[in-house]
Write a structure and sequence with these properties.
The complex is a heterodimer of chains A (115) and B (112). Chain A has 115 residues and is an all-beta fold. Chain A has strands spanning 4-7, 10-13, 19-25, 31-37, 43-49, 56-57, 68-72, 75-80, 89-96, 104-106, 110-114. The chains are: A mainly beta (115), B mainly beta (112).
Chain lengths: 115, 112
């Protein structure tokens, strides 16, 4: 299985600011994803992070609000831009290695509170 | 991807088997059934997946009906630490376009 770490684990931010969340995996993986989990809700897929190219966003999510980078096969960042209280959520990194068992694993999440 | 339907909540006595149902009547032939669980404040944890045969691992068993329109996740001896939200997800196996789409899940409460 893949071991995933995220930084920061939690943060409290002021509205109008931006936060960058880092995701580090202990092995090279084919696919990396970012999810959001709003309070009391299920997980919603934000985007697929593509190595060396622009991320693929799901309906309702745009690059200007959630820019994503993936410079290599073990690292990705998600930025939450111009934050508002509605962005208060847990943000989760997820990875999948399609060449082996194709099991998808999740990081511990970053708990973001926007005041 | 096919949609799944799960009961919003279930109770189970500690030490007894927990049987969690899932309906996926629109599943297509190349789609698998995946189960994940999320313990409070943690990232989702993979449990098991299957195509059409029943599957068992150290955590659970997965029973898929012959028509593949429904399945049941079985935790053989539930403990208090199994209290979590359990997600049943249908998705294609392999390929760069595959992604897991989560539904609302079942909150399983294991009672002492």
């Amino acid at each position: 299985s893949a071991v995933i770490s995220q930084k920061p684990s939690r943060d409290i931010c002021q509205r109008g600011t931006s936060l960058t969340i880092q995701c580090q995996v202990d092995s090279q993986v084919t696919m990396m994803f970012w999810y959001r989990q709003q309070p009391g809700q299920s997980l919603t897929l934000i985007a697929t992070a593509n190595q060396g190219s622009e991320a693929t966003y799901e309906s309702g999510f745009v690059i200007d609000k959630f820019p994503i980078s993936r410079p290599n096969l073990t690292f990705s960042t998600l930025t939450v831009s111009n934050m508002s209280p509605e962005d208060s959520s847990i943000y989760l990194c997820s990875v999948r290695q399609i060449l082996s068992t194709d099991t998808q694993y999740f990081g511990p999440g970053t708990r973001l509170t926007v005041l | 991807d096919a949609k799944t339907t799960q009961p919003p909540s279930m109770d189970c006595a500690e030490g007894r088997a927990a049987n969690l149902p899932c309906n996926h009547s629109t599943i297509s032939g190349n789609e698998y059934v995946y189960w994940y669980r999320q313990i409070h404040s943690q990232g989702p944890q993979y449990i098991i997946h299957g195509l059409k045969n029943n599957e068992t691992n150290e955590m659970a068993s997965l029973i898929i009906t012959e028509d593949r329109k429904s399945s049941t996740l079985i935790l053989p001896h539930a403990t208090l630490r199994d209290t979590a939200v359990y997600y049943c997800i249908v998705g294609r196996y392999g390929g760069a376009t595959n992604k897991l789409i989560f539904g609302t899940g079942t909150l399983l409460a294991v009672q002492p």
